C-alpha cells in the first residue's frame, strides 16, 4: 500500500483554531469581557418557514407506503432542477436545460469532486487571497498551481495576464474573503482569455444572492461565450441558511467540449454519489417559490443591512476596505501598518471584537482583516461602535 504523498504538501491551517484559541484565552483571563464575533463565516438566521413546512410534508410522505421514496436520481429530482432553472431565467435571463443542472450536498463537495475529471498535468490559476478549498484540493492531486495577486491596486478583482498559461481557472464572485465583485466587463475579459487558452473557468457563485446592483453579473452564464468555457458552482447555504441542511448545485453546460464534460460529470456522479435526501430537495425547491423568495429576501436584507452598518463605521473611522456591498464580507486594511495578527490582538484587547486575520487566506491577506455581516443586528451595531472608539 502506497499513500498519496501529495497530502504531505498540504499546509496546516491554523487560522480558525488559532482565532478560537486566542478568543478563549482572552475570555478566561478577562471573565467580564463581553466578546463580539464578527468572524463568523456561517449564517445565523433560521430556515425560512416555507422550507421547514416543505421538509415536514416530505417527511410525512416518507412515512407512508404510497408516497415513500427510496433511491432518487443521483443528479437530483426534476422538481428541484426546474425550480433552479426558473430562478436562473427570472434573475439572470439565463436558459439552462435540466440535464445541465446537478444537485449535490453542497458546493464544497462539488468543487473538490470536479477535479476527478481532469488530468494531474494541468496548470491551475487561483487568486490570492482565496477560499482555501481550491488550493488544497489541487495540492491533494499534485497539480501545478499559479497564484494570481489580488490586491488593493486591482480592487481585489485580479484580471488575466495574456503571458500566463492556465488550464483551470478559479473565480469566486462575490468573493470570499474579500467581498469584491467582478463587473460584467471584467468577466467578459476572463471568458475571452479562457477561450483563447482553451481553459475552463470554475466559477463559484455561492454568494450570488447578495448582489443587489443590477449591473453586476450573478452568474458567469450571463456572459456571452461562458457556455463554452465555464462550470458554475452554487449552494443553498448562503441564500437560504442550508449550511447545516446541505444542498448545492453545479451547472455543467452541454456546450462544453461538445457535451463531453457534461457526460463525464454525469458518469462521475452516478458512479460515486447517490443523491441528496428527498426531504432536503423539497426544502430547497421551496426556496424558489414566490413565498419562499420573499421570506428569504428578508433574511438576506438583514445581513445586507449589517454589512452596510459595518461599512459605514469603517468609513467613519477612515479605514480603507472593499466589499460589504453586494456581499456579506468586508475586507479592511489594517490601520497604522499593523499586520493582520497584530490587528487581531489589538481589536480583541481594545474593543473585545473578534475578526479573521487576512493572513489565513494567502500572502496578499497579510495586512488585511475580514469582518462578516452574518451576526445579530444589535451586536453588530455594538461592535462597530467599539471599533470606531478603539481606532479614534
Ligand atoms: C460557503 C461557501 C460555499 C458553499 O459551500 P457549501 O458546501 O455549499 O456549504 C462555497 N464557496 C465559498 C467560497 C463559500 O464561502
UniProtKB/TrEMBL annotation:
Pathway: Amino-acid biosynthesis; L-lysine biosynthesis via DAP pathway; LL-2,6-diaminopimelate from (S)-tetrahydrodipicolinate (aminotransferase route): step 1/1
Pfam families, per database record: Aminotran_1_2 (PF00155)
Subunit and partners: Homodimer.
Keyword Transferase: yes
Protein's name in the database: LL-diaminopimelate aminotransferase
Keyword Transcription: no
Residues involved in pyridoxal 5'-phosphate binding: 71, 107-108, 131, 176, 207, 235-237, 246, 274
Cofactor(s) named in the record: pyridoxal 5'-phosphate
Catalytic activity: (2S,6S)-2,6-diaminopimelate + 2-oxoglutarate = (S)-2,3,4,5-tetrahydrodipicolinate + L-glutamate + H2O + H(+)
Domain Aminotransferase class I/classII large: 34-387
Cited CDD domains: AAT_like
Sequence positions bearing N6-(pyridoxal phosphate)lysine: 238
Assigned EC number: 2.6.1.83
Residues reported in the UniProt entry to bind substrate: 14, 41, 108, 131, 176, 274, 370
Role noted for this protein: Involved in the synthesis of meso-diaminopimelate (m-DAP or DL-DAP), required for both lysine and peptidoglycan biosynthesis. Catalyzes the direct conversion of tetrahydrodipicolinate to LL-diaminopimelate.
Keyword annotations from UniProtKB, A to Z: Aminotransferase, Pyridoxal phosphate, Transferase
Molecular functions (GO terms): L,L-diaminopimelate aminotransferase activity
Family membership: Belongs to the class-I pyridoxal-phosphate-dependent aminotransferase family. LL-diaminopimelate aminotransferase subfamily.
Amino acid at each position: 500500500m502506497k499513500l498519496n504523498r501529495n497530502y504531505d504538501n498540504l499546509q496546516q491551517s491554523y487560522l480558525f483554531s488559532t482565532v478560537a484559541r486566542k478568543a478563549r484565552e482572552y475570555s478566561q483571563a478577562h471573565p467580564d469581557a463581553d466578546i463580539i464575533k464578527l468572524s463568523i463565516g456561517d449564517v445565523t438566521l433560521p430556515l425560512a418557514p416555507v422550507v421547514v413546512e416543505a421538509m415536514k410534508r416530505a417527511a410525512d410522505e416518507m412515512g407512508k407506503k404510497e408516497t415513500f421514496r427510496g433511491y432518487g436520481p443521483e443528479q437530483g429530482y426534476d422538481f428541484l432542477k426546474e425550480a433552479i432553472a426558473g430562478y436562473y431565467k427570472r434573475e439572470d435571463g439565463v436558459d439552462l436545460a435540466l440535464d445541465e443542472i446537478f444537485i449535490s450536498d453542497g458546493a464544497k463537495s462539488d468543487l473538490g469532486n470536479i477535479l476527478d475529471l481532469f488530468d494531474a498535468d494541468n496548470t491551475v490559476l487561483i487568486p490570492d487571497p482565496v477560499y482555501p478549498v481550491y488550493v488544497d484540493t489541487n495540492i491533494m492531486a499534485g497539480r501545478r498551481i499559479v497564484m494570481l495577486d489580488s490586491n488593493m491596486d486591482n480592487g481585489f478583482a485580479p484580471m488575466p495576464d495574456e503571458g500566463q498559461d492556465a488550464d483551470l481557472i478559479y473565480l469566486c464572485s462575490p468573493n470570499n474573503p474579500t467581498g469584491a465583485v467582478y463587473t460584467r466587463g471584467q468577466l467578459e475579459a476572463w471568458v475571452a482569455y479562457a477561450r483563447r487558452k482553451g481553459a475552463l473557468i470554475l466559477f463559484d457563485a455561492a454568494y450570488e444572492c447578495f448582489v443587489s446592483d443590477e449591473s453586476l453579473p450573478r452568474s458567469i452564464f450571463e456572459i456571452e461565450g461562458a457556455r463554452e468555457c465555464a462550470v458554475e458552482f452554487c449552494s443553498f447555504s448562503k441564500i437560504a441558511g442550508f449550511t447545516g441542511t446541505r444542498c448545492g448545485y453545479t451547472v455543467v453546460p452541454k456546450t462544453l467540449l461538445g457535451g463531453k464534460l457534461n457526460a463525464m460529470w454525469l458518469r462521475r456522479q452516478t458512479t460515486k454519489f447517490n443523491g441528496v435526501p428527498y426531504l432536503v430537495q423539497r426544502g430547497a425547491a421551496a426556496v424558489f417559490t414566490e413565498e419562499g423568495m420573499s421570506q428569504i429576501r428578508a433574511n438576506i436584507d438583514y445581513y445586507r443591512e449589517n454589512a452596510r452598518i459595518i461599512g459605514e463605521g469603517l468609513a467613519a473611522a477612515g479605514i480603507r476596505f472593499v466589499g460589504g456591498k453586494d456581499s456579506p464580507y468586508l475586507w479592511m486594511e489594517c490601520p497604522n501598518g499593523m499586520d493582520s495578527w497584530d490587528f487581531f490582538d489589538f481589536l480583541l484587547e481594545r474593543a473585545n471584537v473578534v475578526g479573521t486575520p487576512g493572513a489565513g487566506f494567502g500572502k496578499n491577506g497579510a495586512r488585511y482583516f475580514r469582518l462578516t455581516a452574518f451576526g445579530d443586528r444589535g451586536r453588530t451595531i455594538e461592535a462597530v461602535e467599539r471599533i470606531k472608539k478603539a481606532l479614534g
